[in-house]
Design goal:
With 230 residues, the protein is α/β, with parallel strands linked by helices. The protein has a single domain (2-32, 42-229), classed as Rossmann fold (3-Layer(aba) Sandwich). Helices cover 28% and strands 29% of the residues. The chain contains 7 helices and 9 strands. It has helices at residues 2-5, 7-18, 63-71, 83-93, 106-112, 132-142, 191-201, and strands at 53-57, 75-80, 99-103, 117-123, 143-154, 170-175, 181-186, 203-212, 220-229. The strands form 2 sheets. It has a 7-stranded mixed β-sheet, sandwiched between helices. Helix 4 (83-93) links the parallel strand 2 (75-80) and strand 3 (99-103). The longest helix has 12 residues, at 7-18. The N and C termini lie far apart (36 Å).
């Protein structure tokens, strides 16, 4: 019921109606930003991923998970709130080995699982959309010490905004394929505030990178955070 009531269900419903859910070629690289081909790839998750177990929180149609599973020989579990997205991901890449797609809330999955992962990542996914004090602590429980958490979020200064001055979420919107907007709430932190939350959850911030997309003005559009579990 939560997923069907969410703006993300409406987004996936319109996307599914507009595009065929068919097998796709595996993407040649992993994307973290709003502009394909920009920035780092899978190396953010570690220098040698072979045989590792990865978790993606907010896998969408599965493009990054498919790349990692195929090009880096890892097992990826992709979790998404919206069942339609999981259905799309399975239609696109269900034929591939080392891939598991699960429908469910990120927090619920993390609390219910007893699996340990070698890396956890989110690309405009659950991180930033779920209360950080809850989500980061739950991720820490599922991540092997010394391993990486990496996530990209909309940059808090995109379009001339300012980062949140406190720990409360702020109102934002999601743009549907038909160009209409639906309201959402999002935690929009500076890298220093993300570092504070990461420290509290048992992580050490190792890098914070910002990226621009010339199609969207001169403000930065993506913030990419990398941290290591202590």
């Amino acid at each position: 019921m939560i997923a069907q009531a969410s703006p993300w269900h409406a987004h996936a419903f319109q996307r599914t109606a507009a595009q065929l859910a068919e097998p796709l070629a595996v993407p040649a690289r992993m994307e973290w930003t709003t502009r394909p081909g920009q920035g780092p790839g899978a190396d953010v998750l570690g220098p040698d991923l072979h045989g590792k177990r990865l978790l993606e929180l907010g896998c969408g149609p599965g493009h990054n998970a498919a790349h990692l599973a195929t090009r880096h020989d890892v097992h990826v579990t992709g979790v998404d709130l919206v069942g339609l997205q999981v259905r799309r991901a399975r239609s696109h890449y269900g034929r591939l080995n080392n891939l598991t797609f699960v429908a469910g809330h990120a927090l619920h999955y993390l609390h219910a699982s007893d699996e340990q992962f070698d890396a956890v990542y989110s690309v405009f996914g659950a991180v930033g959309l779920v209360a950080p004090e809850l989500l980061l602590a739950a991720i820490a429980q599922r991540l092997t010490p010394g391993r990486v958490l990496a996530f990209s979020v909309p940059h808090p200064q995109r379009g001339g905004r300012s980062p949140s001055g406190d720990d409360r979420p702020r109102r934002d919107h999601v743009t549907l394929p038909d160009r209409t907007w639906l309201p959402i709430t999002r935690w929009e932190f500076s890298s220093s505030r993300w570092e504070k939350h990461l420290d509290h959850a048992g992580f050490r911030l190792t890098s914070a990178q910002e990226f621009h997309d010339s199609r969207m003005g001169h403000w930065p559009t993506t913030l990419l955070i990398r941290a290591r579990k202590l």
